[in-house]
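Could you help me review a protein record that somebody else here produced? This is what I was given.
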Amino acid sequence: MTKPVSRRRRGAALFAAFAVVALAIAPAIAEAKPGGGASSGSRGSRTFSAPPSTQTAPGTAQRFQRTETAPARPAAPGAAQPAARPAGATGGFLSRNPMMAGLMGGLLGAGLFGLLSGSGLFGGMAGFMGFLGLMLQIALIAGLVFLVMRLVRGRRPAMAGMPNAHARDMQGMGPRDGMMGGGMGGGLGGAAAVSSQPLEIAGADFEAFGQRLVEINEAWSRQDLATLRRLSTPEMERYFAQDLSDLQARGWTNATRDVQLEAGDLSEAWTENGQDYATVAMRFSLVDVTTDATGKVVEGHPTERQTSTEMWTFTRRPGAQWVLSAIQQTG
């Protein structure tokens, strides 16, 4: 009678171990190309406004999952200004507080261990009472940690080549009438209102946008942070560095090759506070493959092409080159 029970326990243990591993690697099983398949960056005062849809990207651009722009919160007349939400704080409670997520994972693991060892989910009645005591202690510690994190965050300031034929595909696709109105407030520093003016985009600008698409993918594949820093804003360069670091921590390497722009058009372009912005919809194909330390493919394919449609926002000071300011997924 003991062997079937033992086999069941081993099967349950294997299932639990698989679930733990799956949860651990879940954040990594995503598109690994530049941007990581997420919406990241800032669009000046229009960061929290969806860019207009275009023929290339008729759907809606996703909201930013990662941004260092703090949303504006204008105070009502005579009312105190509420504290701004920390820049980049998005998602649910557990995603904003990984320590709490770890504690909950530990409790779940303890319960599974007790279940698999035959002691019940938390070791019977006596174990359950001990578990309640443990929960009370953890709640007190977590409360203190949460308060400290809130205080620390409250004091931390907000952190501040494409072929010519492809360039011609984007030329002449200017913003439609009525799309150049001011977006929501909330530019860098959480400004309540920013005056913006329409910006005319020329053929040379479209060529630069397509060239940046190719150059950034090439620099990403080389893990060339110096070039990524030159071709993007400091905020985007930090996201690239973090994504590359996450891949390296798992012993993985991502490379994108043979990037080809299939279609592209302008969503909107404007100038605010002496800074130019242009959001462009781009549909492009590429070979995107991720390998482990042994060279084994863990994601993508070494020869098959993939197609993506994304909104890329570029920015510049007048007279300077365009640099990448944001990538948004479409859907």
Q: What stands out?
A: Confidence is low (pLDDT under 50) at residues 12-30, 81-91, 152-168, 171-192.
